[in-house]
Structures are given as structure tokens and as C-alpha cells.
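Study this one:
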Amino acid sequence: MQTTSLNQVFHLRSLLSVAIAGVFTVTALQASADMSSRYNDNDGDMVADIPADESQWVDPDTLIFAYTP
């Protein structure tokens, strides 16, 4: 009888762990799926699209690319 009780506790703890992990996963996905309002993403690929109005395009003299591992 005590084995059944321990199994129930184990399954309950497992279910609770999965539920908590799911909540954190959904929260993280929602937070990372938002792009700054400065940019447009018309096709939903999480890459900023160029403005439709060519007068809003910017052509800087220098481009700086930075990579941080």
C-alpha cells in the first residue's frame, strides 16, 4: 500500500515539474518573439524588413559588425 502512495507522489511531482517547465518555456518564447517597434517584420521571419518608402532608407558610411561568442 505504501508503494502505491510513493508512486502517486512521484507521478504528481513529475507532472508538476513538466507543468512548470511548460510555463517557463511559453513565457520565454513570448518574450523572444517580440521585435522592437522601431522595426517592421511583415513576413514574420524575425528579420527586420527594409522600409517600403525609399526615402526612409539609410546608407551609412561605415558598417560595424560585432560578434560575441
Notes: The longest helix spans residues 2-32. Helices lie at 2-32. Residues 1 and 65 are 65 Å apart (CA to CA). DSSP finds one helix and no strands in the chain.
